[in-house]
From TrEMBL:
It is an enzyme of class 1 (oxidoreductase). This is Bacterioferritin. PROSITE patterns: BACTERIOFERRITIN, FERRITIN_LIKE. Iron-storage protein, whose ferroxidase center binds Fe(2+), oxidizes it using dioxygen to Fe(3+), and participates in the subsequent Fe(3+) oxide mineral core formation within the central cavity of the BFR protein shell. Its cofactor is heme b. Belongs to the bacterioferritin family. GO terms for molecular function: ferric iron binding; ferroxidase activity; heme binding. Keywords: Heme, Iron, Iron storage, Metal-binding. It comes from Psychrobacter frigidicola.
Length: 160
């Protein structure tokens, strides 16, 4: 089925953001693991995998619309050098993604592509959920202090 070229372009733009997120969140997860922050690693890794699944859905939709998924036009990965920077850089990416997804949803409504719109709404919902989680982490750091926050992210070192 031949899709609208502007919708395909918008889906590719969202895909590009999701591909950045996969790499950024995965790198941050591994940094957190290296620092011994197992709980933070688990959360960031989980989000990286969620982004991968959403990217797969976007790729399938673009192909169905007879478009070519763009996996080459990658933007900049924001790398945090400490825990607050990691959370802040992920939050900045989520806000950027939110704007791009919202713009794509509006375009899909204008072009009457409600299937693509629904896919994007699902991504937007996941985006908002992760953005809320990141904001909560920032609030926790402010509330309990960075040292206590870091200690809380180390996990339980007792054997099961």
């Amino acid at each position: 089925m031949k899709g609208d070229k502007d919708v395909i372009r918008a889906l590719n733009k969202v895909l590009g953001q999701s591909l950045i997120a996969i790499n950024q969140y995965f790198l941050h997860a591994r940094i957190a693991r290296y620092w011994g922050l197992e709980l933070l690693n688990d959360s960031l890794y989980h989000q990286s995998i969620a982004e991968m699944k959403w990217s797969d859905d976007l790729i399938e939709r673009i192909l169905l619309l007879e478009g070519l998924p763009n996996l080459q036009d990658l933007g900049k990965v924001l790398v945090g050098e400490d825990v607050p920077e990691i959370i802040d850089s992920n939050l900045r990416l989520e806000k950027q993604k939110f704007a791009i997804i919202t713009e794509a949803i509006t375009l899909c409504e204008e072009r009457h592509d409600y299937v693509s719109r629904q896919l994007l709404v699902t991504l937007k919902d996941g985006n908002e959920e992760y953005e809320d989680w990141l904001e909560t982490q920032e609030d926790l750091i402010k509330e309990v202090g960075i040292q206590n926050y870091i200690q809380s992210q180390m996990g339980d070192d007792k054997a099961p």
